[in-house]
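Researcher: I'm comparing several assemblies side by side, and this is the next one on my list. It has 717 residues spread over two chains. Same procedure as the others: predict the full complex and return the structure.
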Amino acid sequence: MIGLERRPQPSRAWSMATPLVAVLATMLAGGLLFAALGKDPVEAIRTIFWEPLFGEFSFYYRPQLVVKGAPLVLIAIGLSLGFKAGIWNIGAEGQYIVGALTGAAVGLAFYPLESVFVFPLMVLAGAFGGWAWAMIPAILKTRFGTNEILVSLMLVYVAEQLLASMSLGLLKNPEGYGFPGSRNLQHYDSAHNAELIAGSGMHWGAAAALIAVIFAYVLMNRHMTGFHIRLTGEAPRAARFAGVSPTRLVLFCLGMSGALAGLAGLFEVSGPAGVVSIDFNVGYGFTAIIVAFLGRLHPVGILLAGALMALTYIGGDIAQSNLGLPSAAIQVFQGMLLFFLLAFDVLTNFRIRLGAGEVA
Amino acid sequence: MKLNTLLASAAMALGLATGAMADDPTKVGFVYVGPVGDGGWTYEHDQGRKAVEAAFGDKVETVFVESVAEGPDSERVMTQMALEGADLIFTTSFGYMDPTINVAKKFPNVKFEHATGYKRADNVSTYSARFYEGRAVQGTIAGHMTESNVIGYIGSFPIPEVIRGINAAYIHAKKVNPDVEFKIVWAFTWFDPAKEADAAKVLIEQGADVILQHTDSTAPQAAAQAAGNVVTFGQASDMAEYGPFPRVSSIIDNWAPYYVARTKAVMDGTWSSVDTWDGIAPGMVGIGEISDAVPAEVKAEALALKDAIAAGEYFPFTGPLKKQDGSDWLAEGETADDGTLAGMNFFVEGLTGDIPQ
């Protein structure tokens, strides 16, 4: 008989080890999947994990890791604050869209004026847009006790409709021959979130992601709010006795994650993406949830997890092109990562007992 | 600039390497917006890729990446293909326009072909198909086949391409059946079987007994089949598995001749940047087999129209035509110019409902 026995204390060692074990298990199971598809599993895994970092064209792929990872990290940092306190913002994708819309709208409103004030104003507008979109589930929760998981998730679909409407109407490029989509902000210097050092992939969004990591670290470890967040997550009753206001905490956590998601959207639309288009959002808000958990809700862990996810995306595309792996196989591979993480997470709180034992 | 130089020199080095080995195969890359198994848009582009492989055998190597999002991801995938030595890259979605131009700047020796866009460069061509010619044939059959006189139309996005199709279908349905009415549902997707099925069901409930779709999945076909008495047309692909009824005909995107010709041009060194907008005549737009569910005289009429379009004797947008608001558009015998068609953002007279803004 194999049984599970609850540990008296969650195992710190397993908590640190599960992401690594999950990655290894994903490589193994993924390798089997690729082999079943008739591809060389070692070559496929090597292409996904090695090629972008150390391959022949890594001079191009390494900066792309920054481009792909920055929005993931920025959003995941915001989400992790709420997740630690048991406040579940599942709608970062919507906040990301709205932040991009408000930020881009400010930039486009100034077109073609060239001024150093345009971009900072866009940044503020982007953060505000994301924050405001997150305030809807926050206020509904604190006022009427609605479930923030459902409300924030449903608002993603509302945001997508808003995005389509803006791409076809208000923000449509007047010189775009009737096609949907805004002007390209990459061609508007004052609004362009260009690379800070050419060829490095480092744009303001990447800088903001690094700042957010440091900020979150300080907040969680050195600041009273961070303590309140952790306390609420671990012992809600104790938190109430300690005078933590649940309302203020919900507003803070949802607002913060919304603002960061909005910023990520703004930096994306004004930089790598360039245009507001119907298909602007590609799921960063949802992937960031995986990144937050893969990173153990710890700022440094999230940074690493963001880099890892970016790696599987970029390596996955290379594997598609070079080895002819179908995109669905790559998606399964990425999905396995979360699956194995959750599976091995059991070992943090439980230990496996072999032999005749009572069922735990 | 530093990256540009690096990329350019890498491309140059690859170019030199290619030149040195004469029997090195020509590498052709394809960037797809959907999965190759969508049975519609991307499927047909992939058929074109396979035709290139079949035509040139060992002399060509093709690579593709599917389900590529239209933003920085597409730019990265194109760059990756160019770095890996692609000589020619087909980017097969409108949203790849700016990324294609960006990447083309960095790789002056690589040729790019962008589908359905309007931005070109020395090494970027654009190509698209005059699907509206097929819509004219489809509208003729639809106008005859409807008994309720209500034709449902599943629009994807309100862009000129789709609006042009609705207008062409409506004009020709009206021509053979003056009582016909169009109901349009905007799905805001190119491919989403669930949404498309819902749209089809809504239209059927509103009395439509013919459904035209500008979305790529077979879900509307399945919905029509379930309803039993509703006529459909295959979109992008033949969708023959739903024939002979409900699917009575189809518009097929046939990219194969174009892809083969452009690959040949790269091999021969005769490639140059062009804007191609081909229709039924060169075979880029195909009309799928008209099934026996369509009466013989209707079939004959539809085929005659198809032949007249192919021969250049008939143009689907010929006056007198008015816009929806009643203002004049084309005078008697006047035909629409390509510029107006390319940017078409209005309905013709008789269509109801607004184009979403």
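Model: For your comparison table: The longest strand of chain B covers residues 247-253.
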